[in-house]
Amino acid sequence: MPGRTASRSTRSVRSSTAATTRKSTRGRSSAANVEIPDEGPESSIRTEINQIFDDAQNTTATQRKLQTMLRKIQERCCYEQAESKKKKKAQEEEQFDEQDFNTEVVRCLLRVLNVKKGVQEGDRVIKFLGLFVKNASEKDRQIYQADTEDATEMHETPTSRLIEQIIRTLLGILFPADGNPVQNKIVHFRATQALAHIVGQLTALDDDLFALLRVCLKKLSRHKESAVRVQAVLGLSHLMNTDDDEDDEEDDDDIASNILEKLLDMMQNDPSAEVRRAILHNIEQSKDSIRYIFERARDIDPMVRRIVYRKVLPSLADFRFMRLVEREKLLRWGLRDRDDIVRKAAARVFCEKWLEDCAATYDTRPDEERRPGEPAPPSLEAVRELLERINVVDYADEDGIAHDAMQHFWEIRTDYRDFITFDDHEFWRDKLDPQYAFLARSLMDYCNSLNEKTDVALKQDLEDKFPTTAQFDYILKKHLNELLTSISQYYGSDLPEDDSEMLKLHDDMNDKEFTVQQLLHIALSLDYSDGVGRNQMMNMVREALSRAELPEGCTKLAIQVLRVCCDTESEFCQLIVEAIAEVKDTLMADDATVTGDDDDESFHSAQSDVESDTVQARPKKAKAAKEMDPEEEERRRELEVNVYLKCLDIAQNMLQTVVKSDFSNQSLTTVLNTLVVPAVREQEAMIRERGITCLALGAILNEDLARNNIELFIHCFTKGHDALKVIVIQALADIVWQHRSLLKDEPTDDGAEPKPNEYVKKLTKNVLLKGLRSDNNEISLLACTAASKLLLFDLLPREETALILRELTLTYFDPDTAQQPGVRQALSYFLPTFCHSKITNALLMAQISVQLIGKLWQKKEDMDDDDDEMVGWPIITAHIADWTDGRKVVNQTQVDFDGKSSTKLEAEEPHIWLATEILEYALTRNCSRDERKPLLTLLTKAYIAPTGPAPDEEKLSTLLGLVSEAVDSNLGIDATQRNHLTKLQVNLTKRVGDVETATQAAGSDAETAIPEATEIPEIAPAEETAEEEEDTMMAGMQGESTRMPLDLEDDDDVEMEDEAKSDKPITEDDIVNSLLASEIDEDEDDDDTVVAPAKQSRR
């Protein structure tokens, strides 16, 4: 039950603040920061209001009844009411006015401010008070409207005065006049929560109070506690509806902006996801805020992204008001989100909300038959408009989002899947446009993705919707001819490019090209069991490839269709060679045919020409009968380049398609010698790049070709331009990965050690390391990716691997790579993956770690003030310690049946090696004090077990000697490092001793093992044995901590034996006498004892 309150709470709050602040510093967050002194004797109104608030905190079921009771008390205190004489006489003894009622209500509210967050009783009381002021304000308005004619005029009512007193009391607690606010975050939360809830129930507010609230809530929106900022956001969102567009003059700490701008700024920059969610739930969706709301689809918090796709997007009036870029981004972000709930919500938005917005336009039903929330009948035009709204022509490439969206569409909208059919000839002949073609292609892709065992019936039904192979051949041929005609019209026109007619021709050409590409995609999945249809399709595609004006995208797909139609790769290669020959004949029909100089020239000669300085410009041309003018020569040269590029494009797609064929195939050899070889020797950059690409594809197919020309690729990377380097570095990585024997050492005939491979160092230094240090971001990223691939598959020798690994690690910590997020992302995946894949990799990282620290320290010293700051040493050492931790290597830690984890013995070796390397360098004079600090910091992060067997006893003993030397020389920089070295010395000393003991025990067990045929020797007399033991080397030796002379040990043993033999019991007096005698003996011995040195020097 709420306690008692003072009649004037403002001053009492300020006086109690200092005391509670001192209490809160002792860690008592529950301390009552809002103390209310004694309010005097109890009263009837206090009892009634206390009882109402006490009942309101228990449940929300009776709050409506309690509001009525509290309203009656308010009316009794604030309004004059006609009452009977008996009742009036009873009330004469104790009468209350409006101030008494307001004081008691505020008093009950103050009792809630100390209730922690999450306690339901506090939330119910605040909710009850908010509902009460809402209902009371409405009843006061009705009373004043009955008395006055102007219903729009705002009057001062008892409830408005109560609200003002509550608000000013809470603001006085949060922002006291003496500038010493309450430090308890619980009070801040509850006070802000009460303000937000009360403001949310009001329809009108005084101007001065509104301005004060807005200023205070904006200040609270910068509170350090996220819970307080959430409540401030709720309050500001309620004030936003009454906020004008004019900027208000506020203090220097407040920005002259309206509430909406403040909320948008918080939604973008607030670190708390709870605050961003609160703003997203309550912000107004307008043209000024919708763009910021869409940005939350990429929020790091999955709950915020769920709100965008499950609440915001479905609540929009129509998705078509959004820009095309916004639609594409929202669809791509949602369908490719990490959270499965977000992906499903985005698919629902596309398949239901957006589709229904389009389908409503084509719904021909009368209005009385339409029901809210009921989907419109399936419409093919609605799907077409939806695809047009997401611009499938530009966003339907192989990795475009339109493919993912349509896969979800066919999965969710089964009504459209059953409704749509493609067996109508009118659809393929007249209706087919880019959107319909993509619709048909997406359905074919969905059909191919179905399980052949579980979805047999559905798969068969979808396949029946498409025409047969023979029919589809006619459809594809028709649209191919239309495309070639459109291309001829566009390039044959003399109009300027910016002319409206030219732009229309360009758009029409792009649409037809996209349509043909979708038809070719469908052709890849057709059933070619019908021989007639297969032959028709093969001849039609073969004829299309011979057309020089066929675009590259269509050429690639046509070659893939041709491969599907051919039975063998030999037949396929033969058809491609014929197509290349026809392309030459078609384009050079006007006496401009290019003839090769040596058609049967081997590739090795091409390699020699590339390496030499005398590069043949181009294959020789037949001399014209007469001299040509410069324009004709330029046109002829341009035509030759187009011939080469078109032929090389066909050859490249052929090499990408074949899988099993090698260069024993005569057709491939012909293409290599007559087309690829001259292209590699060309001076034209575009032709040379395409030729190198074709040569790389051929080298992937044939190992001998790769071995003979690997030096050519290295030469091209060293001397070529950036575009050629991009091609070469990808080619080298794929070739080396495909033919892993290329970089192995060459065996010798006489059986000696293998000869080192000559290409390993060239590939490492001239390509990979040079590429990593390149100024071109694309080349450095490709070099990083290529090097990572080679190291992960262990394709390089250990020396080169260590060199590249060191360079990659330096690149990772280099502040210059902050502008290359691709490189950082690739290395953040590669480095831990490489080190934790094998124990030898972690050991390799440990061996180069000291060099890494030295390089990074030197780079940090050489950096200028204007350069970007490198990450701190704690981060660097933490990364290296993690990468060299053998316990994290795969299969090094195992979990037993009892749940306990055990680590293999070799898992400790990387950190032992790391500690040894660190101490060996830190103990030298070349290591400065500043460089020693990060090294020893790294040493403190290394894990070396205090007990257990050692993976290498010699290495562990060496480490113990280094640690002892470091302790003796006081090597540590600070107390943490010195304490770690001391602790490490103690553990290693104990561990090495245990290992030596175990080794000696194992050796002695081996020596005392008696063979079965060995005779047992005679045992010598006891006296002779004792004399021999005294003459041994171990006689007289004792442990470091032993203080008892060895010559007394035998006497003690004798005495113990005598005591054991005697039958006389030992009494308490005997024990006391023996203790006194031992003390006397010790005093006598102390007089003759020579004090030994406190510490002996270590070797």
Automatic annotation (TrEMBL):
GO cellular component labels: condensed chromosome; condensin complex
SUPFAM superfamilies associated with the record: ARM repeat (SSF48371)
UniProt feature, compositional bias: Acidic residues: 1047-1058, 1079-1089
Polar residues bias (residue ranges): 604-615
Key words, A-Z: Cell cycle, Cell division, Chromosome, DNA condensation, Mitosis
Positions of region (Disordered): 1-44, 595-634, 997-1099
The UniProt record lists the keyword NAD: no
Gene Ontology biological-process annotations: cell division; mitotic chromosome condensation
Record localization: Chromosome
Entry keyword annotation includes NAD: no
Gene3D superfamilies to which the protein is assigned, alphabetical: Leucine-rich Repeat Variant
InterPro entries the record matches: ARM-like (IPR011989), ARM-type_fold (IPR016024), CND3 (IPR027165), Cnd3_C (IPR025977)
Stretches with biased composition (Basic and acidic residues): 624-634
Residues of the Nuclear condensin complex subunit 3 C-terminal domain: 646-944
Domain of life: Eukaryota
Biased composition regions of type Low complexity, renumbered to the chain: 1-32, 1006-1023
Family that this chain belongs to: Belongs to the CND3 (condensin subunit 3) family.
Stored PANTHER family: CONDENSIN COMPLEX SUBUNIT 3, CONDENSIN COMPLEX SUBUNIT 3-RELATED
Protein name (database record): Nuclear condensin complex subunit 3 C-terminal domain-containing protein
